[in-house]
Amino acid sequence: MLNYYKTYKGTKHSLFLPCFILSSILFMTACVEIQSNNINTTSSSSDTIEKLPAKAKNVILFIGDGMGISTITAARIFDGQSKGMKGEEHALAFDTFDNLALIKTYNTNAQVPDSAGTATAIMSGYKANIGAINVRPGQKYEGCGDIPAIQTLTDRTLSAGKSVGIVTTARITHATPAAMFAHADNRDWESDNEVPKEAKEAGCKSIAQQMVDSEADIIMGGGSSKFSERQLETLKNNFVFTDNNADMKNFKGGKLRALFSKSHMSFEVDRAKTKQPSLAEMTETAIKNLETNQKGYVLMVEAGRIDHAHHGTNAYRALTDAQALNEAVIIAKEIADEETLIMVTADHSHVFTMAGYPVRGNPILGLVKTIDQITGLPSENYDKALDGKPYTTLGYHNGPNLRINNDKPLTNEIVQDKNYRQQTAIPMNYETHAGEDVALFGQGPGSENIRGVMEQNEISNVINIALGFD
Q1: CB 349 within 8 A of CB 68
Q2: CA–CA gap between residue 134 and residue 121 (Å, rounded)
Q3: 58-351+432-467 belongs to which CATH class?
Q4: CB atoms within 10 A of CB 269
Q5: Catalytic residue among 14, 43, 82, 115
Q6: 3-state secondary structure at position 4
Q7: Which H or E element spans position 59?
Q8: Of 165, 183, 268, 404, whose CA is between 20 and 30 Å from 154?
């Protein structure tokens, strides 16, 4: 402004300066007023948020527990190769979804998270400490006794008159499914005898008891051993109760409680098909019964045992359970109506790697054959590490199966067996989670809000906006 004035200093425009200053003051005042109004509007709207128009009637949320990016890639190849393809060109059912985002998975006090804190973020919209279920940092015994609880996804859905389904292959009292209906300072409070005395005196209930008290329409999974005889009797008396596949398939109407095993359900490859349903079968039963509610529904489906196989460094079972999740997604795409938002994500990743420059189409569970740099063709022999032994494409950063010098050389038959445990670099009793971003795939009304790099608790916002929740 001063430079502009100096240009005219000493000229015949003697009235320029006062006019210029006056107009500048008026302009700046107007700008401040506009900015002030914008700030006040933003503040006012955040204080009185109105219900948003709904975009979807239903939401189906699939969670592959521990299904990080490397697991998705390996599962895609594994599934393709099981269909006679090379594998890399194959697409899983959710690979073709319209929208995609990367999700940050950290807990409020942990760089590498666990399933309790991550499930709380996904479903209730609050980041939490590692091991805490729907309890915010610093809020001890939140949801116990007279201490107000944060709303769960189940609470919000039922308040809107919609139905709720919870399906898992883990124990129903395990961290991820528990985040749909429970509050617990510690995810280990699964049964009554696992709740500390002090917590009981504060009015805290076990996750099992909170499941018994839940008003969700359909709850299916494993874990009957976490329930007392009294709790099991309550479930049998107050709900349609089953522990087998046939009864589940015949379920028509009412509220269903199904516990198919004492602890976690079997891995897909070990499943007794007459006793335990597949994840796809549970998903189909849930959708067909929930969709009778004309107001809509929310269904959470967890492939819980992907995580458990990874912890045991058993890639075969991790990938076959990821296949089972894919089959469940296929069913959902086929039978859910066009008013349904379908999302597929993971709560966290694992220290699961693909490496070694294997040739295109190399068996994903097999030993590595590389490209001969002279001929450009696959090498005749397996590639060897510095210890002179072949190695697999898949491996783990840490875990119980450390590779040591006196190990016998691996064979292709050994490494492709369903019980083979991949080798690890750092010796530990079990393999750990990883801290990198996971993927969120979305299709249907409301999925346009899935994009970019998102905080994990923003997944809850996507659901709320799609369903028109406050």
Answers
A1: yes
A2: 8
A3: alpha beta
A4: 16
A5: 115
A6: helix
A7: strand 58-64
A8: 268
Q: Closest Cα partner for 163 from 250, 51, 59, 55?
A: 59
Say how far apart CA 314 and CA 383 lie, in whole Å: 22
Tokens describing residue 114: 């666990």
Q: Token match 């032994």: residue?
A: 389
Task: Mark whether 70 is an active-site residue.
Answer: no
pLDDT tens string 410-452: 999 999 999 999 999 999 999 999 999 999 999 999 999 999 9
Instruction: Yes or no: say if 171 and 223 are a contact pair by the CB < 8 Å rule.
Output: yes
Q: How many CA atoms lie within 13 A of 372 on its CB side?
A: 9
Query: pLDDT tens-digit profile of 138-194?
Result: 999 999 999 999 999 999 999 999 999 999 999 999 999 999 999 999 999 999 999
Residue type, 36: S
Name which of 359, 279, 363, 278 is nearest 316 in CA terms.
363
Identity of the amino acid at 123: M
- What is the pTM assigned to this prediction? 0.89
Angle 193-196-201 from CA coordinates, rounded to 5°: 105
Contact 178, 186 (CB under 8 A): no
- Kindly report the number of other CB atoms within 10 A of residue 145's CB atom: 11
3-state percent breakdown (helix, strand, coil) of the chain, nearest 5: 35, 20, 45
* Residue owning tokens 């528990």: 178
The candidate with the shortest Cα–Cα distance to 77, out of 415, 467, 393, is 393
Tokens representing 394 are: 């898949």
Q: What tokens does 331 get?
A: 């069913």
**Which residue has tokens 């697409």?**
91
Locate all alpha helices (DSSP H) within 207-314, ordered by sequence: 207-213, 229-238, 245-249, 279-290, 305-311
- CA–CA separation, 70 and 72 (whole Å): 5
Per DSSP, the residues of 393-405 read SEEEEEES-B--T
Count of C-beta atoms within a 10 Å radius of residue 26: 10
290-330 residue pLDDT tens: 999 999 999 999 999 999 999 999 999 999 999 999 999 99
Tokens 């976490």 correspond to what residue?
226
